[in-house]
Each structure stands twice: as C-alpha cells, then as structure tokens.
Design goal:
alpha+beta; five-stranded mixed β-sheet; 16 strands; OB fold (Dihydrolipoamide Acetyltransferase, E2P); five-stranded mixed β-barrel; 262 residues; 2 domains
Length: 262
C-alpha cells in the first residue's frame, strides 16, 4: 500500500541524530512517483490526497531553469531528467533516510529504492547523470556514492564527458567563483591559525586556492579517521561551493568533501 499523508508528515517531524561514523539508512516508507521535476527531484502522490516533493539526497543533477527568469540550463539537464523519469516515473518506490529529513524548501530528503531493490541515487551516478553533493547532516552512503561517481568519471559517462563538469585544477579558478566545483591538486602547506586550519595549494595564500576547516569540522575529520594536518604534500580532490576569500576558497564542512587521490 502507498504511504498515507499523515505518515509522511510524521517522517518530517522525527528528530534524526547524525552519526559521526558509519551513518546508515533507516526507514522504509512506500510511495508512488507521479512526476519528475529534474534529475534529482521527484513528486510523490499518496493514497489519499496531495503531492509531496522529494529531493534525492546526496545528488546534484544538472540544473534546469524551472521558471527562474534569466537562469540558463546546465548542459545535459534534460538528459538527466529523462534518465530519472525512465527509472522512477509511475513506479512505487521505498524512501529511506540517512540524516536530516527535510530541507528549507519543505522537500523531503530521502534515498529512493525500486521494487527490485535498485538504488536510484546509485543508478544516476553510475550512468553519469549526477554528481555527489553531500551535507554534514546527511552523510549516509556517501563513500559508496563517491566510488560510483569515480567509476562513471573514469568511463566519461554522461556529464563527465562535458567540460562544464570537469574536475578543475587549482590554477585559474577565479572564473568559477560562485559555483559548485570538484577540484584536484597537491596540498603544499597546512597551517593552523587560531581555531582554523588552512590547506594551501599555492605559495601565496592571499591569491591561491585554499580549503579551510573550522575547529568543529577539524574534530569531525579526526573522528572519521582523517587528519587534515597530515594532508601536506598529498594530492586531494575536494568538492564544494567556490568562494572568494583572498584567493578562491572552499570552506569544508564534513570529511566526505575530501578524497585522497591515490
């Protein structure tokens, strides 16, 4: 049977503490996909009335304008939407949760599973139709998702064959400030200044790319078995929104944003 509307409201009301290590998926509510908004958002219809929007947590699919004036669609946005439609449109799915259960837009944040057990997030990543976009309060299954993304990128599947989504090097990042990027480079120095740690990728921290961690985030890395102070001379891949603080900067909020490049 499809889940009833009051039950969905109950899901959103539950408090779900984030585990610092080995977060896992919980839940198992059933629902029905009535439409697809884009490559990472669907609308569910329950058995009584109304419709509920679901954000496929952990993914960032190519964005579509969706009524926003002046917004230019990202490359392969329609392809990503079509791929998700082929997977879930008109299907009964199971919702599972790995952290915070709703966002500021009122959407439910969930992992979706098909009747045959297929993981929708995993399939979108495997086909190269989305990239990993994780949050400190929703970290379950991110390691698996990163592995699927890496495999798709190696095969140049989907978005990974388009320069818009290329993994950036640490030079010439200024044109990409204000966008979400995946960036790869060697950490030349690690500095702790007061309560903040800085991973410096160039000789001049005033102009070159930097990743910064607050003391709280630094402790989260350590609890996850990663010591940012040992990143010096290592090649890492980091993802996040690129800001300008002196030079280009990403402010890390959780360990899954950083991958050691073997």
């Amino acid at each position: 049977m499809m889940c009833r509307l009051p039950l969905l409201f109950l899901i959103l009301a539950w408090a779900f503490p984030v585990q610092a290590s080995e977060p896992r998926l919980v839940g198992g509510e059933r629902a029905f996909v009535s439409s697809v908004v884009d490559g990472d958002t669907v609308v569910l219809r329950d058995s009584i009335e109304g419709m509920t929007q679901i954000r496929l947590v952990g993914l960032q699919a190519p964005k579509l304008p969706l009524g926003r004036r002046g917004f230019k669609a990202w490359p392969l946005g329609e392809d990503s939407k079509s791929t998700l439609e082929s997977l879930v449109l008109g299907q009964a799915i199971t919702l599972k949760f790995g952290g915070r259960r709703s966002d500021r837009h009122g959407r439910i944040l969930a992992h979706l599973f098909l009747n045959d057990g297929g993981w929708v997030q995993g399939e979108m990543l495997r086909r190269g139709m989305a990239r990993v976009y994780s949050f400190p309060d929703n970290r379950a299954e991110v390691a698996k998702m990163l592995a699927l993304e890496r495999a798709a990128r190696t095969k140049r599947q989907g978005i990974w064959d388009h320069p818009f989504y290329a993994v950036r090097k640490v030079k010439n990042l200024h044109p990409h400030i204000g966008t979400f990027q995946v960036i790869e480079g060697q950490v030349l120095d690690v500095a702790k200044v007061k309560s903040r740690v800085y991973l410096n990728f160039g000789d001049n921290w005033r102009t070159d790319f930097t990743v910064t961690l607050s003391s709280k985030v630094f402790r989260l890395f350590k609890k996850a078995g990663m010591d940012p102070m040992a990143f010096k001379d290592q090649s890492i891949r980091v993802r996040g929104w690129l800001r300008k603080r002196n030079g280009p900067m990403i402010q890390a909020s959780h360990p899954e944003q950083v991958e050691i490049v073997k």
